[in-house]
Design brief:
Residues 23-232 form the Metallo-beta-lactamase domain. It holds the Pfam family Lactamase_B. It comes from Curtobacterium citri. The protein is of the alpha/beta class and 248 residues long. The protein contains seven helices and 13 strands. It has helices at 46-55, 73-76, 79-85, 98-102, 111-115, 121-132, 212-221, and strands at residues 8-13, 16-20, 25-31, 34-38, 63-67, 90-93, 145-146, 158-161, 170-174, 179-183, 227-230, 236-239, 242-245. The strands form two sheets. A seven-stranded mixed sheet has the order 1-2-3-4-5-6-7, with helices on one face. A six-stranded mixed sheet has the order 8-9-10-11-12-13, with no helix packed on it.
């Protein structure tokens, strides 16, 4: 049982549970052959991720696979602990993202690159939360493999390219829930973003992103159904022309 607690846990459709974690998010999916995750939080989130699988009404032995939006440590950090206990679980990502997922080197902002921005209190708050989530722990997922069309042939998940944040960033459409899981291609809030906290789909702070121009093009090209499930911030849905948090 984890001592960490999610900010929110909401059911957004049949078999789809969105978890707004302490610092980053993940999704628990019911599939015909078992349970899947989309992303797995920071290294310190392993137990919490598994707790949320149980909270969603599933047995941990039914966990079958993890779809990865991108290989940053706040999205794959929980995987080594999960795989240590459940080595049968598959980890799937876009072929161009495998180096980031497998690690230990990855296309990610470094402490040295962050250093010049520490004068901003919001950046300091984020950094403290990240370090408290074991962001500096080396993370490797050597068994991760590239997904193919066959991996989605009979599943209610459809990958959608969202390159720019990283080389192989991927969003996942969940048609039955009218939702899209965006990873960091689009977020609804992040500690480092300036301005109002009002949650809405927006770009993450540019220094986290490998290619801002490509990321902007990807964000504009994403299909936006009724519900957006971001990598950071609450789940939101459309109400008229506005986006509002999904009620828990």
């Amino acid at each position: 049982m984890s001592s960490r607690r999610p900010r929110s846990v909401v059911s957004v459709g049949p078999g789809v549970v969105f978890v707004e974690g302490p610092v980053s998010n993940w999704v628990v999916l019911a599939e015909e052959d078992g349970v899947a995750l989309i992303d797995a939080g920071y290294p310190a989130d392993t137990d919490l991720v598994l707790d949320t699988v149980r909270w969603a009404g599933h047995d941990l032995g039914d966990l079958r696979r993890v779809y990865v939006t991108h290989g940053h440590v706040d999205h794959v950090g929980g995987l080594p602990g999960i795989l240590e206990r459940f080595p049968h679980v598959e980890v799937l990502a876009h072929a161009d993202e495998l180096d980031n997922v497998r690690g230990p080197g990855r296309q990610q902002v470094t402490p040295a690159e962050i250093g010049g921005r520490l004068a901003a209190p919001r950046t300091l708050r984020w950094l403290a939360r990240a370090i408290g989530s074991d962001a500096l722990r080396p993370v490797t997922v050597p068994t991760a493999r590239a997904f193919t069309g066959a991996d989605f042939a009979e599943r209610a998940v459809t990958p959608f390219p969202a390159v720019g944040h990283t080389a192989g960033s991927t969003a996942y459409l969940l048609p039955a829930a009218g939702a899209i899981v965006t990873g960091d291609a689009v977020v609804t809030h992040h500690d480092t973003l300036p301005g109002s906290w009002q949650p809405r789909p927006r770009m993450i702070t540019p220094f986290f992103t490998a290619d801002q121009g490509a990321a902007l093009a990807s964000a504009r090209a994403l299909p936006y159904p009724e519900v957006v499930l971001p990598g950071h911030g609450p789940a939101v849905h459309r109400v008229g022309r506005e986006w509002v948090p999904v009620a828990g």
